[in-house]
Amino acid sequence: MNGKWYKKFFAKQVTFQESGRGKLQEAFSKYGYQFSDRDADALLSECWEHYVSMCQLFNDVDKCFAQLQKCKIGVITNGQEAQQVEVLKRCGILSVMDVVVTSEAAGFAKPAPQIFQLACAKLGVQETESVYVGDNLELDAIAAKDAGLIGVWLNRFNRGLQASPQIIKRINRLTELSELIS
Prior knowledge:
The chain is mainly alpha-helical.
């Protein structure tokens, strides 16, 4: 269900807001709930505010950034531009980012190689000299590797260890990254 609305959004058939409405309305319709667009927008706004207010950094993030001071750092996200920038601001890490690339602004989403290539171009680095860390094995680590970067799977909770291909590097904490790339 979610995938259908993302595809419509990236095909520019619906806006990001319409995509959110559609996902919400479909998810609840099977339980007999019907929402007007106005009510869906209000619920999405409330949900978003609650989500952002609850965002917290993992306790290894600041130390990782300190370890990587000399590196260029960016974010690639399949989220909406304004929302993702707001999350980074509220978490106090937007100033650390050299670039933020969202699927909304880029026009394509992970796992498409173009989004990784765009981020590298904005950072002024080659894909082969770039490391991408993410918590989703397929959308992050494998997709980054397929795009020519070094893909690293951040597996904080030791899930799916058998699913991790040997060609993908795996860490359990961000503070392990500096050792991995040195």
